[in-house]
Design goal:
- This protein is about 30% helix and about 10% strand.
- With about 80 residues, it is mainly α.
- It has a domain of about 45 residues.
- A two-stranded parallel sheet has the order 1-2.
- β1, α3 and β2 form a beta-alpha-beta unit.
- It is extended.
Length: about 80
């Protein structure tokens, strides 16, 4: 990863929605994955994925992600 300068005025003026932002350091991903793997029997995290889409359905993913019933939408290969 690197740094990116962004003028927030561009987002506000165009009325854009930023979806899926994360402020977590990438060094936390491996321990997090190990933790979820260790407790997957007690807490099946795969049930948190409410929708799966193909990459070609990107617009549908974005539309669905804005609905209140959507907890997590992902792109999944065939």
């Amino acid at each position: 990863m690197g740094e990116l300068s962004l003028n927030p005025l561009l987002i506000v003026c165009k009325g854009l929605h930023l979806i899926g932002l994360s402020n977590h350091l990438s060094i936390g991903h491996r321990p997090s994955m190990a933790l979820t793997s260790r407790y997957q029997d007690q807490m099946p995290l795969n049930t948190l994925v409410t929708y799966r889409f193909l990459l070609e359905q990107a617009q549908q993913v974005l539309d669905r992600a804005l609905e209140s019933a959507c907890m997590k939408a992902i792109f999944a290969p065939l």
